[in-house]
Amino acid sequence: MKCFRLCTASLVCGVSLLLAGCGTGTGTNNPGVTVHPAGGKVLVDGAPMEGVTVILKGDERGASAKSNAQGEFTFTTFDPGDGVPEGTYKVAVLKRETVGADSSYFDENSPNYGKTPPPEALGKVVDHIAEKYADAETSGLTADVKPGANEFTFEVTSK
């Protein structure tokens, strides 16, 4: 009887410790790095554009964002919209889209599903922003993130 109580108590303690270690904590992916709110607006040929990807490339970390219909974006480093660590970053700005693709090769209900699509069925990749901006090394754009709120406007061209 004494052994049964001891085993039961040990089992309860063990399960309690296991469950305590399995919690989600704060729900964050941040490993303890201080981030600062950062976002802004992207203009293509002077007008806002939706769906533009903005990438910050740093020595140790990076961040990214996607613009809304007003061209506004908020950077993510670890968790959605959390911000960016302090530092100077090179910036890439791009929007690529595949047009004219035949999606029937990827539709399970299509007779084309599973077949190798011919090259013309893959469509064409269209860059909506000049190619030089797609690479942080060639864009000429930088962002200096400081403690506190950071707002950036990136003006790029389509050609």
TrEMBL record:
The keyword Signal applies. InterPro entries: Ig-like_fold (IPR013783). PROSITE patterns: PROKAR_LIPOPROTEIN. SUPFAM superfamilies: Cna protein B-type domain (SSF49478). It comes from the Bacteria. Gene3D superfamilies: Immunoglobulins. Keywords: Signal. Residues 1-20 form the signal peptide. This is Carboxypeptidase regulatory-like domain-containing protein.
